[in-house]
Structure formats: structure tokens, C-alpha cells
Amino acid sequence: MRLPAWIRGQNLTGSHQTKNLIRRHGLSTVCEEARCPNRGRCFSKPTATFMILGRSCTRNCGFCSVESLPPGPPDPYEPQRVADAARELGLKYVVVTSVTRDDLPDGGAAHFAMTVRALRQRLPDAKVEVLTPDFLGSSPALRTVLESSPDVFNHNMETVRRLYKTVRPGADYDRSLMLLRRAKQTAPSITTKSGFMLGLGEAPEEIYELMGDLRLSGCDILTIGQYLRPTRKNLPVVEYPDPGVFEGLRIKALDMGFIHAASGPLVRSSMNAEEMYGHV
Questions:
Q1: pTM of the shown model
Q2: pLDDT tens digits along 114-127
Q3: Burial readout 29-64 (b: 16 or more C-beta within 10 A, e: otherwise)
Q4: 28: which of 51, 89, 115, 202 fits an S-S bond (Cβ 3.0–4.6 Å)?
């Protein structure tokens, strides 16, 4: 489908010395690996979402452009390099995400925890948000991450229940909800966050069901964005909802009790994460 006017003409790509700094430290960002449309403007701030545990994912989600290949072992020096890069960038708010690592016994939870602790040492005043995979529903893995005391625990639902097998093969709708619910029950002081996309063929009532399920799971912050097909190998876009639809969902989310909601065609889970946290 052709891009609508409210997306076409936006500054979707760009470059900044942030790119060179990230590469100099031997790191990856989800901004580039997932071809985020906001990477140009985010890099120019500068800010970036660090992607740990390699560049290859053990799953093959239909919406994602991150390569699906057998990954290598975790790099034990990566947490410190993330912290060094964040300090050099002068970040006051750091977002850390990862590929899914179903091949690891803990799904990479210990590596997340080490990264959070390294950031605390190098940037003691910075806030840290983790955007994690589902760890196959492992409570010990979740607890490992939460015990490192991130300020925000984020796990994206991505889409409605009916579309999970197509959009997120290997994931489970109820398992992801359970992860968010357990995070809030285990560490009530940690802000919980999730997000999903429009444009994959979801119906309005399915969207409302997802929002209700997230709120019942104790989710504090919600992000809603437009799915944009990153490559021809990925799922096609079914619809480009009008910006008014996004605004209506933002208002509904606040009415449902979310502390903050960001909703718009180019909204992404990590975009303006520091500003979102400021509403908590």
C-alpha cells in the first residue's frame, strides 16, 4: 500500500555521529536493526535504544526485520560497553532491549541484569528502561531482571490475540500478559509499559480487548503506533488508520486508567521514552 500523506514526507531516515559512536563501541541498536522510521531524528538528539545479546533472533516474527539465524554466545563485555557508550552520549535515560534468545537457559535475563547494573555504576543518576522478550514465561528469569532494579519494565504485546500466530509465531498472547502482570506483582514500584501496532488487520473490538487486558495486567504506560513494512519479506500493511483513530485510542487509554498513553502513526515503544516516564 502507498504511504499516506501523514507518513510520507516525514524525516524517516538520517544520520548523526551517534551512529559512529555506537559502532566504535561494537554495539547494535534496535533503531537500525529493526529499521525504525524515527532513527534519524532520535540519533540527532542524540539517543538510541541499545540492542544486546547479538543481532540474530531465535524467532521469526512477521513484522520484524531483525535476522533470524542461530545466534552466538552472549558477549560478557557487552554490558560494560553499553554503559560506556551511554555515558559518552551523556544519556539521562537509557533504553535496553534485545533479540529473543530462546536458546539460552534464562533467555538472556542475566545479561539484562548485568547491563542494568553496569549502567547504574557508570551513570548513577540515569533512569533505565528494559524492553524484554517473554523469556518463555519463566518467573525466575523475570525475577532476575527485576532484581537489577530497572526504572521501567517494558514488554510489547505488538498485536491482538487473533493475529498472534501470524504476527508473532513462537509467542503467546496470554504468556505476554502474564509476564507484565507478574512484573507488577513482583515489583510494584517499577513502572510497567507495553505497546502494540495498528495496520495488521485488527478490528476495533479486538483493540479494545487488548487495551483492557493490558490495564487489568497492571500496565502503566501504553504506546500505539502504525505498522510499517520494513522489507518485502515481512507482512504487508493491511490498513493505514487516520491519525484521528490514534488520538481516539489515546483518549480511551487514559479513560481506562493508563498513567500515560502515546498514540500516533510514528509512535514507537522507545521513542520519547524519557518524556513518557516523566508522566509517571
A1: 0.91
A2: 999 999 999 999 99
A3: bbbbbbbbbbbbbbbeeebbbbbbbbebbbbebbbb
A4: 51
